[in-house]
């Protein structure tokens, strides 16, 4: 075999008239696979302290009666937004069918964006009276605390830690954390992640449950969820772990990947609002009540998520309010 290959190389050299370069001496250069900007090994934060934050998912009661569009109570957060002329909302632009930029139109669209537009509709009578501000997972709370945005509608889980820093609406979506792997990986669940690298975004709730797994995988933190998908495609990580709805979007973009294993924990989503703007929380909860009952929620689910997630369209989450 070696002789045949050598003869072929010789013949090739004679035919090309090249006598100085031997094909057999061309070195193999490994492909350079740079990690996405800011990607870093994430260190385990240690066991999270048991926290008692009461009924975490109970939000402020909706305003009753709800003011009509353009008729917000004087001095309210809503009146200030209406006076400004646009609702400013922090969203994702990387998560297919939740908040993503349509490459053909350049518009950010998805289930989260529909929720944000329903609030603009209720404030102004115009779903387009809105300015979308793209945020990474890690930028959500600072953007609210610095007053850069009025609301964040961005696959954001309500947690004990976060409710000390921002207010949340009632739950508008119930996700579950799972894992995404390459189809030929042989990984079928979180038990097989020992010695593997798992990607999640910095500032997300997805890192801690992976770091707490008995199989002790290494975690890699990046800025955006699409960075995790690229790292998985390039073999720089073995899995991505986050909410099922986000992973389903990645699996739809790359048919060589699949979601595997059971739930690593519930991820109830709320719309986040600065702590001091309780009036806006109550207004948003009134809008969400309408969205759940007037068919908007179901229509939006069917439009964006029906084809992505298995099973029938679920009922909208039942809201809980503080007594
Ligand atoms: N729902 C999780 C969170 O709020 C993960 C999703 C994300 O970061 O976008 O942290």
Tell how many strands the DSSP assignment holds: 17
Radius of gyration: 25 Å
Give the name of the CATH superfamily of the largest domain: Periplasmic binding protein-like II
Average pLDDT, rounded to a whole number, is 91
CATH class term of the largest domain = Alpha Beta
Which architecture name of the largest domain does CATH use? Answer: 3-Layer(aba) Sandwich
The SSE string, one letter per element, is: HEEHEEEEHEHEHEEEHEHEHEEEHHE
Count of helical regions: 10
> If you consult CATH, what is the topology of the largest domain?
D-Maltodextrin-Binding Protein, domain 2
Tell me about the biggest sheet?
7 strands, mixed
User: What structural class results from the helix and strand content?
Assistant: alpha/beta
In whole angstroms, the N-to-C terminal distance is 82 Å
- State the low-pLDDT regions, or none: 1-19
Number of domains: 2
Into which percentage range does the β-strand content fall?
15-25%
Overall form: elongated
Q: What helical percentage do the residues reach?
A: 25-40%
Q: Ions, cofactors, ligands: which are bound?
A: glutamic acid
